[in-house]
Design a protein that fits this description.
Length: about 290
């Protein structure tokens, strides 16, 4: 049994296709098929059912997949342990949300720039669903998202922290100091919101629908930093993660509204694919994100 056979096996499972896996790994399809045939002969079992263009794991294939993941993970750990422990030079491609990028990333990036100037960091922002898909296709080293908890046997989750989502406005808004507000009382005010179907916006919309309430925002934009700037200049309301507005609240530029009937949380989560070799650069980013 060879490591390359395990890598090929896992890649076929990931891509759900022999031809796509062959293209991704740089093999001819016939060479890839031979690798799997030899692996099946050594294991004395069939790993895949191939009916037409459909590829599916057999029962033994599903059982072997967990072993393959564990073996590749241990091989990657061995490689890391033998690598230079001090110098970080490999590029790092991270997928995240705009709200996290503005609020959580600056101190991390500043630390990398100061301590590991040879590391090139590329950041891609998208929705949680898009980022997960990119991670599954190995376009990203790791993803840092804010959403409901996500789980998969294909991923390693290395962080999960609860983050409060709050209603926020400018401190001189006439309703800013009111206590025990109800969501329905806020709807007569202008709202600046993230785009429809964004994670915490979706949670708010679901609550409103359950109460037979309708909210039509005057501004919808994905850029949370722009929303925060607009809130400082207008008597409007938004619904944003507390970490995104904390600095503005502490500086007296914004105020959190006391809303009695709706409280919700999202979870900051960091994942990388189980087949991904966790580099020292990834480990350092994870360590800094947790602090």
């Amino acid at each position: 049994m060879e490591i390359r056979q395990l890598i090929t096996f896992v890649k076929i499972v990931q891509m759900k296709s022999f031809s796509k896996a062959a293209a991704d790994l740089g093999y001819s399809q016939s060479a890839l098929t031979v690798q799997i045939r030899l692996l099946e002969q050594e294991l004395n079992t069939r790993l895949f059912d191939r009916i037409g263009k459909q590829v599916a794991l057999t029962g033994h294939g599903k059982q072997f997949l967990s072993y393959a993941h564990n073996i590749l993970q241990e091989v990657n750990k061995a490689k890391l342990s033998l690598a230079n422990e001090e110098k970080l030079v490999n590029p790092l491609h991270i997928g995240t949300l705009e709200s996290l990028c503005f609020s959580k990333f600056p101190p991390i990036l500043k630390y990398f720039q100061k301590n590991y100037p040879d590391v090139t960091i590329l950041i891609t922002t998208a929705s949680p669903e898009e980022l997960i898909e990119m991670m599954e296709k190995n376009y990203l080293d790791l993803i840092y998202i804010l959403d409901d908890p996500h789980y998969s046997n294909n991923w390693n989750k290395v962080m999960e922290t609860r983050e409060e989502i709050v209603f926020v406005t400018s401190p001189d808004a006439p309703f800013a100091s009111n206590r025990q507000l109800l969501v329905k009382d806020l709807l007569k005010e202008p709202f600046f919101l993230t785009e429809k179907n964004a994670n915490y916006r979706r949670t708010l919309d679901q609550f409103l629908a359950a109460q037979n309430l309708i909210l039509t925002p005057v501004l919808e934009v994905s850029n949370t930093e722009f929303i925060i700037q607009m809130l400082r200049q207008a008597h409007a309301i938004s619904f944003l993660p507390y970490f995104a507005v904390r600095q503005s609240v502490e500086q007296g530029e914004l105020r959190i509204l006391d809303v009695a009937d709706f409280h919700t949380y999202m979870y900051g989560q960091i994942f990388y694919h189980k087949d991904k070799w966790k580099t020292k650069e990834m480990e350092e980013f994870i360590r800094l994100a947790k602090t």
